[in-house]
C-alpha cells in the first residue's frame, strides 16, 4: 500500500509558532516572536472532527510551545470527546493547573525534549534561563501524577552530556527515552534550503502534520512540502489526493519504497526506536548501523 493510499492514523497539530524558548536547532523556527498563526479555535475543532471521522487514532499537539496556546484545554477536551488518543509535546516549563487537570481527566500523554543533566548546558540550548529547573520539576510532577511521559535527547553540539541526560531522565522514572541528531530544518539549517534527503522516509505514511496556517505537510519536519490546506479543502480530500500523491512519490524517490529509516522517536509517538537508540551516536538510522555513518547534516560541534 502506498503512502497516499494508507489510513491516516496519526496527526501532528501545530497549534502555535509561539515559544518561550529559542533553541538554535528548532526545526519550526519558533520562538518568543512567533504567533498562533491564522487557524481559529473553531477551525482546529473542525480539524479534530474531520480526523475522528476519518478513523484517525491519535493526535499530538505541538508548537512552538503548545501550552502557551490559550485554548489548548478546549482542544484537548474536544479531542477526548471524539475518542482520539492525545499527546502534548511540551518543553514542560509553562503548565498551569487547568492544564494539569485536563491532562489527567482526558488521559493525555506528554513528551518533552531534554538536553543535559547540567542546568547551564540545557539552558544554553534553550536560551531560556531556568528552563532546566522548570522542565525537570514538571517531568517529576507529571510522573507523580501518573501521566505517561516520553523524553527525547537531541545531540546539538560536541561534548554535550547526552548520556547523562538520558540517565537523569531514566533516574526520574521516564521509561521511554529516544535520541536523534539535529536535522537541517528551520534554524538548524543555518540558511540552507531543506531537502527530502534529511527526512526519515516515513513521512506521509499513515501520518501528517497540520501547521498554524492550515497547511497539511507529510510531517512536522517536512513542512516545506505542502499537500494542501484545510482552510480551503476538506482533509479527507487532501489525504490521498493528487498533491499528496505527488509529495509521497517525491519522498519515495529519494528514500526508496517503504519506511527504510527509523523515525526520531521524540517526535513520533506511534513509532518507537528500532533498538536501543544511543543519542551520542548522533543519528537514529539503521541504514548507517552496518558501517561508517554518513556525515551528519549539521556538524554537532556547532
CATH H level, superfamily name:
Aldolase class I
Q: What is the straight-line distance between the termini? A: 40 Å
**Structural class estimated from helices and strands:** alpha/beta
Biggest β-sheet strands, sense, barrel: 9 strands, mixed
Give the spatial strand order of the biggest sheet. 6-5-4-3-2-1-7-8-9
Helix content: 25-40%
The best one-word shape is globular
Q: Extract low-pLDDT stretches.
A: 270-302
Q: Any guess at the CATH architecture?
A: Alpha-Beta Barrel
Average pLDDT: 85
Protein name: Radical SAM protein
Organism: Streptomyces misionensis
Keywords: Iron, Iron-sulfur, Metal-binding, S-adenosyl-L-methionine
GO molecular function: catalytic activity; iron-sulfur cluster binding; metal ion binding
Outline the structure in words:
The chain is of the alpha/beta class and 302 residues long. It has eight helices and nine strands. It has a nine-stranded mixed sheet with strand order 6-5-4-3-2-1-7-8-9, with helices on one face. Helix 2 (72-81) runs parallel beside helix 3 (97-105). Residues 202-248 form the 4Fe4S-binding SPASM domain.
Amino acid at each position: 500500500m502506498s503512502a497516499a493510499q494508507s489510513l491516516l492514523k496519526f496527526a501532528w497539530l501545530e497549534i502555535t509558532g509561539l515559544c518561550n524558548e529559542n533553541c538554535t536547532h528548532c526545526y519550526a523556527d519558533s520562538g518568543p516572536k512567533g504567533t498562533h498563526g491564522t487557524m481559529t479555535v473553531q477551525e482546529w475543532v473542525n480539524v479534530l472532527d474531520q480526523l475522528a471521522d476519518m478513523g484517525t487514532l491519535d493526535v499530538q499537539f505541538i508548537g512552538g510551545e503548545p501550552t502557551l496556546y490559550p485554548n489548548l484545554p478546549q482542544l484537548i477536551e474536544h479531542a477526548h470527546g471524539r475518542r482520539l488518543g492525545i499527546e502534548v509535546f511540551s518543553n514542560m516549563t509553562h503548565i498551569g493547573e487547568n492544564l494539569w487537570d485536563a491532562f489527567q481527566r482526558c488521559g493525555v500523554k506528554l513528551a518533552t525534549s531534554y538536553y543535559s543533566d547540567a542546568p547551564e548546558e540545557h539552558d544554553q540550548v534553550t536560551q531560556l534561563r531556568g528552563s532546566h529547573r522548570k522542565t525537570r520539576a514538571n517531568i517529576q510532577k507529571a510522573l507523580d501524577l501518573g501521566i505517561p511521559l516520553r523524553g527525547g535527547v537531541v545531540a546539538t553540539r560536541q561534548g554535550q552530556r547526552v548520556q547523562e541526560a538520558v540517565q537523569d531522565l531514566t533516574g526520574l522514572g521516564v521509561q521511554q527515552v529516544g535520541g536523534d541528531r539535529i536535522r537541517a530544518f528551520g534554524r538548524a539549517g543555518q540558511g540552507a534550503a531543506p531537502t527530502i534527503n534529511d527526512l526519515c522516509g516515513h513521512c506521509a505514511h499513515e501520518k501528517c502534520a497540520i501547521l498554524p496556517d492550515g497547511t497539511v505537510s507529510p510531517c512536522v519536519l517536512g513542512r516545506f512540502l505542502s499537500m494542501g490546506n484545510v482552510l480551503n479543502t476538506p482533509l479527507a480530500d487532501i489525504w490521498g489526493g493528487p498533491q499528496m500523491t505527488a509529495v509521497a512519490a517525491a519522498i519515495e524517490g529519494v528514500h526508496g519504497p517503504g519506511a527504510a529509516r527509523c523515525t526520531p522517536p521524540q517526535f513520533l509517538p506511534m513509532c518507537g526506536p528500532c533498538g536501543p537508540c544511543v543519542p551520542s551516536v548522533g543519528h537514529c538510522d539503521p541504514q548507517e548501523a552496518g558501517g561508517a555513518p554518513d556525515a551528519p547534516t549539521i556538524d554537532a560541534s556547532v
